[in-house]
Amino acid sequence: MSNPNPVPSTMTNTSKATTHQKRSWGLFFLFPVLVPVIAAILVYQLDSFDPAVMPLHELTQTPVIPLMSNDHMLQGAEYVGVGNLQGPEDLAYDSKLGVIYTGCEDGWIKRVKVSDSLNDSVVENWINTGGRPLGLALGHHNEVIVADAVKGLLNASGDGVVELLTDEAGGQKFKITDGVDVADDGMIYFTDASYKYSLKDYIWDILEGKAHGRFLSFDPATKETKVLLRDLYFANGVVVSPHQHHAIFCETSMRRCKKYYIHGKKKGQVEIFIDNLPGLPDNILYDGQGYYWIALATEVTPSWELAFKYPFIRKIVAIMEKYTGRPHTERNGGVLLVDLEGKPIAHYYDFQLSLVSSGNKIGDHLYCGSIYYPYIIRLNITQHPAITQP
Ligand SMILES: *[C@@H]1O[C@H](CO)[C@@H](O)[C@H](O)[C@H]1NC(C)=O
Ligand SMILES: *[C@@H]1O[C@H](CO)[C@@H](O)[C@H](O)[C@H]1NC(C)=O
Ligand SMILES: *[C@@H]1O[C@H](CO)[C@@H](O)[C@H](O)[C@H]1NC(C)=O
């Protein structure tokens, strides 16, 4: 305050002595700046989109940075099913058949034969849901349980039949059925990312910063759908813990994963599993060897950091999205490896990567799905491991 910035002479009262001519020149130069600023202010005032303050104070840990990383994971990566897999979002591995099930943008659930040789990684059209299959989980009767963003929770079985299990709860339809897993006892845990926005408008849900997500269960024996938790921030990937104590789900726009106890003394309670993630989490998968793989769609760039903090910045981005398209700053997407307690172990990512939606370790390879690329990316992480950074 004691040292105010110098103010341009045309804008101060103390500069009344300046000549008329000087003032007009000043206005002349300001004109091209003022018009868009005034227009932007008007559009801002008129637009009814009303982003909320997000509860960032709830984030408990300092930003999570694991000791080991591979920050150039595209070097040495291979591309599986190029051209045959548009937006392969989730990757469910069936070790008996040696295939990965993945849901694509065109509605197909495809089967990808896992093979050391890329040439033998054959892609087969399996079942088309007619919607947009996102999360997938293997059922107990050779079926695949599908969180279909458009249709709801589905049962896709070998003979090509797709059965709707549920698409609403508590009088509210699902708008983005997103993540799913099946417990050993057959109970299905899944998420609806938003009851307000559909998948093509998901960015509006993130920008609005309100909690439209739910975590739910479906009991195949009674056909009952239960809302376990509501008011979640873009509820996304789901995984049941290997000992069946709890189910973990990701909340993308709050960059955290929570655990919900499904058995035992703590049944029904919810706790933070991991938060302050270095990126926006999508699916979480268990590798059968004591680790979870959390896909991070993009790092939290400084501009996203600001946007999450300040609703008016999200509003400006929303207005840009509406009229001109928002700037795309997504980068450093990848996968975070964490142990059963949620302790981060390693981070695989690449500056060039964005919208990575799933990571699954099969043999030597880390396979990555995305909602963007027309292939699955895989990397031999025995050959290209994450290493301890100096
Ligand atoms: C894979 O297929 C391509 C084209 O058919 C062929 O040129 C290449 O030699 C094959 N690679 C291997 C390792 O079999
Ligand atoms: C899915 O459908 C198959 C074939 O009808 C059936 O055997 C299986 O029990 C169903 N799964 C669920 C969870 O409803
Ligand atoms: C992965 O790389 C390791 C080390 O280079 C190699 O021994 C192994 O055969 C590779 N795995 C596959 C499936 O290609």
From TrEMBL:
Pfam family, one: Str_synth
Keyword Transmembrane tagged: yes
Keywords: Glycoprotein, Membrane, Phosphoprotein, Signal, Transmembrane, Transmembrane helix, Vacuole
Ranges that cross the membrane: 25-46
Record-linked InterPro entries: 6-blade_b-propeller_TolB-like (IPR011042), Strictosidine_synth_cons-reg (IPR018119)
One GO cellular component term: endomembrane system
Gene3D superfamilies membership: TolB, C-terminal domain (2.120.10.30)
Main location: other
PANTHER family per record: ADIPOCYTE PLASMA MEMBRANE-ASSOCIATED PROTEIN HEMOMUCIN-RELATED, STRICTOSIDINE SYNTHASE-RELATED
Name used for this protein in its record: Str_synth domain-containing protein
